[in-house]
Structure formats: structure tokens, C-alpha cells
Design a protein that fits this description.
The complex is a heterodimer of chains A (232) and B (233).
Chain A (H helix, E strand, L loop, with lengths): L2 E12 L2 E12 L3 E5 L6 H8 L7 E6 L2 E3 L1 H11 E4 L10 H11 L4 H15 L14 H13 L5 E5 L7 H16 L3 E6 L11 E6 L2 E4 L2 E3 L2 E3 L6
Helix pairs in contact in A: 3-4, 3-5, 4-5, 5-6
Chain B lengths: L1 H15 L3 H34 L5 H11 L4 H12 L14 H26 L2 H9 L4 H11 L1 H17 L2 H7 L9 H11 L2 H25 L8
Chain lengths: 232, 233
Amino acid sequence: MSEIIHYSNLRKSVHGELLLNIDSLVINEQACVALSGRNGAGKSTLMRIIAGLETPDSVTVTLDDKTLSWRRACQKMRTHVIYLHQNPYLFDCSVTDNIAYGLRRKKLPLKDISRKVSDALDWAGIGHLQLRNARELSGGERQRVAFARARILSPRVLLLDEPMTNMDSEAREQTCRMIRRLREDGVSILLATHEYHTVAHLCDAHLSLQAGRLHPQPLEQDGEERKIIPYR
Amino acid sequence: MDSLSAATSESFRLLFSGDADLWVIIFTSFSVSIRAIMIAAPLAFIVAFLMAHLRYPGRRTMIAGFSAMQSIPAVVVGLTVYLVLSRSGPLGDLKLLFTHSAMITGQVLLAFPLLVAISHSTFQAADQRVWETAVTLGAKPYRAFFTLLHEIRFGLIAAFIAAFGRIIAEVGCSMMVGGNILGYTRNIPTAIALETSKGEFSQAIALGIVLLSMALFLNGLLAFFQGRGVMSS
């Protein structure tokens, strides 16, 4: 697996206390990594830094083997990385307009946008919802719209912040299916969770965030321990 | 009582017969206030957004200042603009006193703090995920700003209507800097004040009906745009 982004010496303080003190974090191509930790451990902050939504105190970012300034890295990351909130925000417009939002920012021809949106609706199985206002959807449907809206932009890395929280078993299963399909499409996924066992079967690496540091953890599946995949 | 009903009947006759003097007053009022709100609103929304999203020294003082300025009396604004634009004032050479420009300036100053204060509350209450979602989906900051405006549009429309309602109905500032010149700077509130002082109620009632209808129309419009008026989930 080749490396997409490498963050080194990442430090972030909040209210004068060091929250993140990470020597090295690598996001590889087509990897699905679980990021676990207790509530308040800094998982969301780390995700938001990776997405360029928060500025760390210090960091060195290497993207495709090129070291970039933080400002340049933020610009680049916005074309490669998409962050999905724990409870994804859908704009107050139709499902179609929500999914097309990113493509419109890229100023693609309307015909291409229309075709891609149609494909994305089919991919997420929400074709029947296309004219509905996104605010009227159930939690599971909203999640599917958010995944379709992210996938349509062909990101290299998708950051999922607690994607299964407050979901019933059926919605969880749907979300798992979409994560698997995204991996099949070649998207790297970093998945924050405080309930690792719920996503263990999806992941090929597990990092635990404790006291601001990342610790590789053994993988578990079906009650058995899998070998630790070397992960920096 | 008879004189009141006669004045009311006459006011409807004036309105529907297309009385030139009356309609010039109405046109002046709307022309000045619409231009004033169009100048004040975009600037106020940008200031309110920056106050809500940036952290800088003096921010809280600014917020408190704009809140306090909401209740500044129109005559005080009128007096200030008058002193600045009068012949001996710093901008006296521009010869703007008793013109539409002076009235617009006064109304912009009246509307601006109200627009900033109300829209700042709206921006402050906006979901942070709107901006972040827009940015993470590739929107440039200015596009993310417009997306945010769209998401909080009802709060901004309410600010817009409140500010427009204030400036189109204010008397003090328009009277002082406009001079209440018939056919030029006389607007609805100054005309109502003048006609009432003269005991000519028919035109005052006609203009009052216009103001009242406009207030009802604007609030109806707000209710329409708000749709079902339920909280979003």
C-alpha cells in the first residue's frame, strides 16, 4: 500500500493542555483504519485537523511524497479528503441538490453533473428520494445522502466521525455496506469510533488514541485476535 | 366622528384616484428606503459574519456597541448627519443636505446597527457544520459564505424586514436631513407628521394605510418564506 498523506510531529493544545502529541500518522491508499479512544480523547479534533478544518500548533505534512506548508496542505487536502460529521449536515434543499453541491463547485457541465448525480443516487439506493428535501429524511437516509455526496467527488480519503452512533441495527448494516463499497472503489477510510467492536470487521488496522498519542492495537474479528498489521 | 369618517373616505379616494402628490410621496419614501437598505444590508451581513466567526480583541465591545446602537433615536442620527453635511460641517462642500443622498445616509446609519445586531445573533446560532460541510465539499470561502447565508436566510430576512420597517417609518432623521420638501424629499412619515399638524387628516390616513399595508405585506412575505415554520432536525 502506498502512502497518501503522512503527518509527523502533530501537536495540538486546547485551553493550554496538550490534546494531541502524535509523532507519525500515515494514511495509506485503500486502507480502512479504525481510530478508537474514549470520549474527549481528541479523535474528532484529529479528524478535523486531517480535513484541514482545524489548525494544529505544529505539524509536517507530506502529501504524495511532497512536503507542504500547512496552508498549501489545507488546499490540497480539500481536494483529496472529505470529512463526514458524526451527524452529517445536509443543506436545506433537495437530495439531488445536496449530492450535486460539490460538483457544482467544480464547475462541471450540467450534463455531467446530472449523470453523476444519477449514478450516485443509484449507488446509495436513494433514487426514490431525489426530489425530497434532505431535511425531511430519516437518520439512515440522511447518512446515505451524505455518503453519496462524498463519494461523487471521488475523494482519496474519507474521514468518518462516529458514523454508527445512534443508529439501529438495520441502518448500521447499511452504513457498513456503503463503507465496504467505498473501499472497493479505492477510497481510504479513517473511521473514528469509541466502540471499536462495531467496526472491527471493516478495518485492516486499528489505532487507539490515548493521552494524545496513537497506539497500534491488535485487530479483532469474530471474537478472535488478528495479527497486528504494521502501521506507523 | 363624522369628520373622521369623511377624512377616511377622502383618503381612499386619494389613494385610488392616483393623486399625484400622494404617489410622489409614496415613491420617494420607497425609493429612499429601498436604496438605503440595499446599501446597509450586504455590508451589515459581512460585518456580522466576521464578528461571529473571527476572534479578535474588542469583538465583544463591538457586539455590545451594535446592540446598544439599535435603540439610538432617529433624531440623534438626523442631528449628527445634519451637522456633518451642513454648510459649516466637515462634508458641507458636498452640498448633500436636503437631498435624497442625505436621507439615504441617515437611513443607512439607522438600519446598520439593527441589521448587524440581529444578523449577528443569526450567524452566531448557525450550525458550524454548514461552513465545514461546504468547505470539505470543495467550496471556496466566499461560496461557503453564500451557502451559509442560504441556510440561515429566514433569520436574515427577519433582520432585513425589521430594519426596513424601522427606516421607512422614521420621521426625525428624514425631517432633519431631508427638509420635507414637497415633490422631492417629502416621504410618508414626514408627510403624515406635517398633514396631521395642519389638521389635514385625509392624506395622513391614506399614507398611514400604505405604511400599514406594507408592514402586513412584508410580514406575510416572511411567513410565506418561512414555510412550515418548524424546527429543522
